[in-house]
Design a protein that fits this description.
- There is one protein chain.
- It is flat and about 65 Å long.
- The chain is built from five helices and six strands.
- The strands form two sheets. It has a four-stranded antiparallel sheet.
- A hairpin with a 2-residue loop joins strand 1 and strand 2.
- It folds into two domains: 101 residues, no CATH class; 56 residues.
- It is α+β, with helices and mostly antiparallel strands.
Length: 207
């Protein structure tokens, strides 16, 4: 009796054909747009990113408030809520067509975000001082109206009032803490954070 699986002619069976692996398809090179999108997705996959003086943060992330955003010292435990509003700077050109037109369009196209930031006791007191001085500069010229009529020229009062308004606006800008430079559905870009705080984000071990 022939051994099992041995044909009658005494020769071993022919080797069964082995399926060759399928040839890998050549991957076409990415277009410049695809490469840009991939780079953007990779760079901005981090919830917090520092780009020079700018901080890029995801809207879904709770921003760290345990450190002062100006000096990186421990905060006073109270977060400061910032309602950020941004639209493309080109829409400011609509002001030449009328302030009302600009206001309506800005309400439609603006992007909003809420960011909680921390302040140390020193920077919080500085902010309150600037706010108080701004109100004083705004109201001081109108105290001249209490003087007897004819003592001061009304045009001088109007000039002082305009000067106080301009100074007040500039001082209030200094109390914004952070300023948005770009907002979309997912990301918030803002400036205003101090260099120590930015360095703390990029090098947490150095705190």
């Amino acid at each position: 009796m022939n051994p099992r699986n041995r044909p009658a002619d005494g020769f071993p069976p022919a080797a069964l054909p082995v399926d060759e692996p399928p040839m890998a398809r050549a991957v076409p090179p990415m277009s410049s747009d695809e490469a840009t999108q991939l780079r953007y997705a990779t760079e901005f996959s981090q919830p917090i990113r520092v780009d020079g003086k700018k901080i890029i943060v995801s809207k879904s992330l709770t921003f760290p408030t345990q450190r002062c955003i100006k000096c990186n010292q421990p905060s006073d435990g109270k977060s400061l809520k910032r309602n950020l509003v941004w639209h493309h700077p080109a829409f400011y050109l609509l002001i030449f067509g009328g302030v009302i037109l600009y206001a309506i369009v800005a309400l439609i196209v603006r992007k909003k975000a809420i960011v909680q930031v921390g302040l140390c006791p020193i920077h919080r007191r500085k902010r309150r001082l600037i706010q108080t001085l701004s109100i004083l500069f705004l109201l001081a010229p109108y105290t001249l109206l209490l003087l007897p009529r004819g003592t001061i020229d009304p045009m001088a009062i109007m000039g002082l009032a305009l000067f106080g308004l301009v100074v007040c606006l500039f001082m209030l800008l200094g109390t914004q803490v952070i300023s948005p430079t770009y907002i979309d559905e997912k990301w918030v870009h803002f400036t205003g954070a101090g260099r120590p705080f930015r360095d703390g984000l990029t090098n947490p071990e150095g705190n």
